[in-house]
Amino acid sequence: MLDRVKEIYQEIEQFEVQTKDQLELFRLRFVAKKGAVAELFEKLKTVPQEDRRAVGQELNSLKDFAQQRFTDYKALVEENSGGHAGPVPDLTLPVVPNQTGALHPLSIVRQQIITIFGRIGFSVSDGPEIETDWYNFGALNFPDNHPARDMQDTFFVQTNPDVLLRTHTSNVQVRLMERQKPPLRAIMPGRVYRNEAISARAHCLFHQVEGLYVDRNVGFRDLKDTLYHFVKEMFGKDTKIRFRPSFFPFTEPSAEIDISCLICKGAGCNVCKQTGWVEIAGSGMVDPNVLSNCGIDPKEFTGFAFGMGIERIAMLKYEIRDLRLFTENDVRFLRQFEGA
Length: 340
Hints:
Layout: H1 2-14, H2 20-31, H3 36-43, H4 49-80, H5 105-118, E1 123-124, E2 130-132, H6 133-136, E3 156-157, E4 160-165, H7 170-179, E5 184-193, E6 205-215, H8 220-235, E7 241-248, E8 251-260, E9 277-286, H9 288-293, E10 302-309, H10 310-318, H11 331-334
Helix pairs in contact: 1-4, 2-4, 3-4, 5-10
């Protein structure tokens, strides 16, 4: 056994390593789990008991010697190859162009909305998606028996009926009016949740952006001018817009805003329900009760509010007929927005 140890010592000393291939041969021959040193350790159990300690010490010394030589040779090979143990890259090869992804269409439209309103002085506010009944309904003048409170429309937390997934971003308006004194001018983009059947026109999860302006002497004319400006900037100067009287618990008077359908150009389609017009937003003057609930004197201040679905805006802008495409992550769909 000791004679074999001396032979392997000599083989290691005589083994020359200059390249990566030679380094790998050295590793396989001496350092690997099935190398010469490992084989001697396997035969150690055949050595007589009285000699096993001395032979074991010699084997440990041989193992350390082989490992040290391997480490030294590896450093030498890396130094000779410019710091790379592998093959030197060919610097004459053509550069591979960067493959950049595309923004999601909802992200594109969301940023465009923020930019348009930002130019006329609207800041961006945010708030929680898990909300209490007060901020989502009570402070906004919803009566206790309002249909929107029903489980058919709202996702309530089962363990606490006072907690829910917000159904609109109006909760951010309430929080903003509570913590900040007028004048207030902000938009509130974010995700909202409603218990609705998923179809080409509706989803249980979607995105809204709401706006609020509260100051002295704010009138309905200010609301109309603001939304006219937005529609022309987002969809083009030739887009037609109309206001229809409506009702919302948190605004009085209230109006819904329609624009001429950009998909069918007024001819009628599934998005505009064959009418040639598409509703894009609800709006109105902030109800005095809402201002009072938020600690603002309605005799001194007035304001307007509006809300619109980002998916609806994106569908019209990019002529998309099915809202479900926004959440299916179909790469063929998303790649159409590269460079947008």
